Amino acid sequence: MKSTPDPGPTLAIGDTAARFGLAAHVLRHWEHVGLLRPDRDGAGRRRYGEADADRIAIILRAKEAGLPLDDIAALLADADPHARRATLRRRQAALEAELARTRTALDLVTCALSCTHDDPTHCPHFRDALTGAHPSAARAAAHETSLRC
Prior knowledge:
2 strands; 2 domains; elongated
């Protein structure tokens, strides 16, 4: 009789890495920094079950959101919901700042593309966009409605 429940089917590190499109060394690194704790077989080889696969998927999604491994580890390990929220709020603020920079860049490119000047660098609206003289919405409206130079 078994003393522990059957963990179900498990995969070797190479198969698990391939399942997620990762290199095996990535899983080893995540284990080294404490993000993963795979079981070991009798020969000491790593074996990954469904719980490990779920955790890998969570790590990958968190990385897609731009979270560094330290923050991911804190989110996965921290039982304090306030600490989790603080970590997520910091990431939210960073993403909002990044989004604002991206919007500004998009406004500049849109202004240049919609300009009637052969060289947008000679357009006063484009120059205003470069210096940030107008808020982006007002700048776009002014560019659309004002006379072209």
